[in-house]
Specification:
Length: 181
């Protein structure tokens, strides 16, 4: 499984092709909010165990477990395990009572649609001087040559684009058993 810290959208792009999940019903989930400060717990990048991290956005994969309707979350950056039942993941990763500016919103996109349309030039990971903020992945950038990068469109949850945008309550309802994706 390909993985590079701080490049969750690219990790999920590759995960969507992985034989572990490729034959399952899959959806890609962009997690963010209007203030670009989404509080998440149980993330490897947190300063300390038990502390939240504020992501400007995060990306995970939903997949239905083989032979069931159990929706699982595949988050390569979580400390909760891999995969994790969606309800457990959502309740542990996002805590009730946080200020509105830290509450999550979710853009849910069919994984095959995401794989066909996603394009990134990694510009969001570069400083004004052109240096990478975090070491880039060893694989090439994702997208057809000359394609317009569209990561910002996926992470902007206030503007219509692909998929459906939900709040935490809606996401919990969407992933509840026994409803398949």
């Amino acid at each position: 499984m390909l993985y590079q810290p701080f490049y969750c959208e690219e990790n999920v792009f590759h995960l969507a092709h992985d034989p572990l999940v490729a034959s399952r019903r899959r959806e890609v989930v962009f997690i963010s909010n209007a203030s670009r400060t989404c509080a998440m717990w149980h993330q490897r990048a947190a300063a300390r165990p038990g502390w939240p991290i504020l992501w400007d956005y995060h990306v995970v994969l939903l997949a239905v477990a083989p032979g069931s309707h159990l929706v699982q979350v595949w988050d390569l950056d979580t400390t909760l395990g891999l995969p994790v039942p969606a309800g457990h993941y959502l309740r542990r990763s996002f805590q009730a009572g946080v200020d509105a500016e830290f509450e999550p919103r979710f853009r849910v996109v069919d994984a095959d649609v995401f794989v066909r349309t996603f394009s990134s030039d990694r510009a969001h990971m570069r400083t004004p001087g052109g240096r990478y903020r975090k070491r880039p992945p060893p694989w090439p950038v994702i997208g057809a040559p000359g394609a317009t990068p569209n990561l910002a469109r996926f992470t902007d949850l206030s503007t219509p684009f692909l998929g459906e945008v939900l709040d935490l309550r809606g996401m919990l309802a969407r992933t509840a058993e026994p409803r398949p994706l």
